[in-house]
Amino acid sequence: MMTMNSCPFERCVCLRRAKPCNLCEDRLTFSENGKKVRLSLRSGEDAKAIVLDGCVFEDEELKCDGLFFYRSAANKKIACLVQN
To answer: Is residue 3, in this structure, part of any structural domain at all?
Structure first.
């Protein structure tokens, strides 16, 4: 499996339900107010979901819920912002 360096924000990477915060439904799903945004992977792809509001951004101003870092099997990289 490919690795993705998300330091210094590793503490903000979704691991499972409510870890590191309630926005995380699972490793690649954000959930808020009954709405879910899920990233599905195919063989050879890799991704991380990172919580922005309240974790990366700690200033109490709401900006954006989360960020998906995605890498394809062909090593194409995409960042996708999520606002539920």
So the answer is: no
